[in-house]
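Obj.: predict assembly geometry.
Materials: sequence records (below).
Method: joint structure prediction, all chains together.
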Amino acid sequence: MALRVRHPNLLSLVLLSLLAFASAKVFFEERFDDGWESRWVKSDWKRDENLAGEWNYTSGQWNGDADDKGIQTSEDYRFYAISAEFPEFSNKDKTLVFQFSVKHEQKLDCGGGYMKLLSGDVDQKKFGGETPYSIMFGPDICGYSTKKVHAILTYNDTNHLIKKEVPCETDQLTHVYTFILRPDATYSILIDNVEKQVGSLYTDWDLLPPKKIKDPEAKKPEDWDDKEYIPDPEDKKPEGYDDIPKEIPDPDAKKPEDWDDEEDGEWTAPTIANPEYKGPWKAKKIKNPNYKGKWKAPMIDNPDFKDDPDLYVFPKLKYVGIELWQVKSGTLFDNVLLTDDPEYAKQLAEETWGKQKDAEKAAFEEAEKKKAEEESKDDPADSDAEEDEEDSEASHESDSESKESGEDNEEDKHDEL
Ligand SMILES: *[C@@H]1O[C@H](CO)[C@@H](O)[C@H](O)[C@H]1NC(C)=O
Ligand SMILES: *[C@@H]1O[C@H](CO)[C@@H](O)[C@H](O)[C@H]1NC(C)=O
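Observations (raw structure tokens):
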């Protein structure tokens, strides 16, 4: 009975979601299933110098589904450039959603995990660092200082970085990065389907000259009083203040016993700083009753500002690409999407990353545990025999524990054998 009740619900859910996405337009979607190599072109950039890195088609060392593969940088100190073409389109009057997932298995300390959208005609075999792009988006990590999401927009042949600081994820798990650009010139940046930044192209990039500027003609009025504090005119210098000496003879000094006035001259005590001396007299400061605040030039319309209602438009989007330099390889890209529907993108993220993230995390933790165990095993024994005995006892114990805790550990042991 319960099944029968549930089925119609499920069905209507499926129908509902089909209806919801009936209007979604997908410009490009790459899940890196079979045949991906026919859709992506590996660039020859840096190949002559033997610096073009190879991609590994893999689900990585830890994953939530071993059959769900992506492409991973596999050689250290290499340049990577790969791109895919899609039917050219303009995002005019449409929302543009650019999304992909990225996993830095190598514990990235310096390198990018971003992707690019290119426009017009590009020789994909020559795609590289110099190739002009329209949008560059995704995480970038270098040392302690750079851990951010790039969102670079090219306008009037100039690359403009976002002015907001958007922190990126820094762990070794898969994360989904989403950039949404809307026809009202607003944008959102999401990580793992959570909005991290939202705003306007007008304020968060310097694409156009500013709308308002300080009036360059304006001058501070002569009588503008911008001193917040003034000396108190009521305050008077106390009588005799200037007579207080800066230094006085040390009252504790004593004429040495063997001092001979005739031979050594008249003895005078050394001087010390006078504790009574307070420096030159200054009147107390009081709030200036005529203080008008800091003077600011009035803002006026900037004569150089010309609005561009198509500020958000990229009229000839045609390629998506990855172009990176990696010191340490291991960055894995998957599920690249270009659509006009944020809901569709959200759903795709849920179906892929969302479904797999818990299993991936568990696999990662297992891998870390194994690594730690192996490292401690490899440690040269610098302990004495007694401690060695304890160690082996301890490992026997954990063996019997793992037997109880199930099959996985059994398999691990087989692997080790
Ligand atoms: C590709 O990735 C898998 C999984 O991490 C790894 O076992 C394999 O060695 C990698 N191959 C290359 C050529 O890097
Ligand atoms: C485009 O760039 C050129 C050269 O830098 C500049 O002279 C021009 O004012 C820019 N136009 C806009 C609309 O920003």
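Conclusions so far: Residues 342-378 form the longest helix (37 residues).
To do: check interface contacts against the pulldown list.
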